[in-house]
Fold these 3 entries.
Entry 1:
Amino acid sequence: MHKSRIYTFLDNKLGFTWHFFDGQRVIADLSTLHSLEGAGFTYYRDLVLSSLPMISFLKAGEQLGLYIDSESPYFQFKIEANASGQFRTLILPHHFNKFPDRLKGICRYVKIMKNSKPYNSILELKQTSTKDIINNIIENSYQLEARSILSEMTDQSLQISKIPLSGSNLNSLDIELDNYIKNNNDVVHDLFEKDFNDIEKIVSFLERKNLTYLSSNQIDFFCGCSKENMITGLQTLVLADQEELFQNENHIHVNCDYCHKSYQISKSEI
């Protein structure tokens, strides 16, 4: 299986961008990391496929973080990524097994930029659908109207956004985004149905649909956890909590929630 990639195309005539994410390798890798099954993993898959195309909006050296704290149903979702295409993600509890249509809670989006303070955006979730979360973040943070489309056949997704007319030289007919997507339903269906996992085939197919290929970015799961970071985190606990943590033992095992790597840490190291 080829590495996962996000492909960016431009409809220069009508003024829309297409971000196609072939996430098959990514989802396969995540399935080996997490013990989620059934509806829980399917929902986790949808969150990952919906959010990762936002990497296309990052400039060199920038990073993003998307954090969902859902009250109903209760779960936490985190995904952190950089412009180079590296990301890490988790969902808690580890046995989450629901597929909710709507969420109630809080979503926080963070963008870290060079030589600038991080940008923070907070979205209150009031029975909000997953796709609307991503669409609202893009609209609020990037002033772009966008729609996320998930494949029901493959681990792939598509994010289509409308380029603002102001200051643009695009020969746009000012088509509404929803109408534009409706007019391209057959193209989207064929793209997902063909289940492309090869750069040349993906680019060739969409260029035949009058889209201009701009770039692609390889996407890989990467966790930068380390024993040193785990020790630093444990050192922030007050002494009483540290004593309770070790429970008269000289060593404990600490697992990373992102990659599930286990670290043995001694009491003397704390």
Entry 2:
Amino acid sequence: MTDTRKPKTFTGWHMTAILVAFFAVVMAVNFTMARFAMSTFGGKVVENSYVASQHYNDWLQRAAAQDRLGWDESITLDATRHVLLTIRKDGVPLDGVQASATINHPVGHTAPVVLRFEPAVGGVLRSARPLAIGRWRLDLIVRHGADEARYREDLR
């Protein structure tokens, strides 16, 4: 038995349907990705990028001076989610270190909160309050005498 049916022809309506479906998928993906981007990013990294660019060389000089201090920082969370900070020079914890910090959500969903540190055992500083569950960005300023270092750490 032979097939007597005519083959179906490809018409302009078929091509129109293919193009409309293709662009509908592209637009749906774009709108979805834009929505995710807008809901997770606070919108700015610096207040004024031009002014920030004017300070770039100063920041590089401060970073080089900080590297010359030879400090090694250890920033961790204990079991109760208190921040533990140890600053070492040549493998020995520095005594008399003072630290101050601000914590905030890395994409700007919360206002920055000041975090105080208290001395703990063995040259370790411990935050006065624990961090809530979640991801946090810690901006830390450490002082030892006239020397100062700044660190940024993401904590989970």
Entry 3:
Amino acid sequence: MATGHTDPQRRERILAATLDLIADEGLAHVSHRKIAARAGVPLGSMTYHFSGMDELLREAFRRFADHIVAVFDAHLSAPADRDAAREAVADLVHALSEGSQRDLVLTQELYILAARRPAYRELTHEWMGRSRVHLEKHFDPDTARQLDALIEGLTLHRALDNDPHDRALTLEAVTRITTGRA
């Protein structure tokens, strides 16, 4: 593996190390020095590849959003009818809530950052829009917006609850939103 400026994977390693560090220690503990050490790159590489911490964080969180949108796509691209789409949404909630603790932490760290800084709010807005595109393949735009919020809320509640609700309750919630009935 090349280690000089010609190292084509250096930028990617920096982005991955940034997300790993945020997931492990929280955004408050992120620094150029810690990221460089975790990525195995010289500290000077940080400013060579990114104009500052803000650009690095935006790009890293953009990559993370791409990952979550791909999870949406994996669950919502196949359903052939609305009933199958409802089942897929329930499966998505359970996959997200039972999946990577890293993804859960990164999602919350991004939301906190977006609550404080408008540039990151734009990133979360883009992410929500991209997620809704997948939901709008099966549901009208208003229902897709409601489902997107439901997915986020149920995922968080299931992931953090000592006794998370079962799939039947998730499907009932999805059904209520998509049909107006249980």
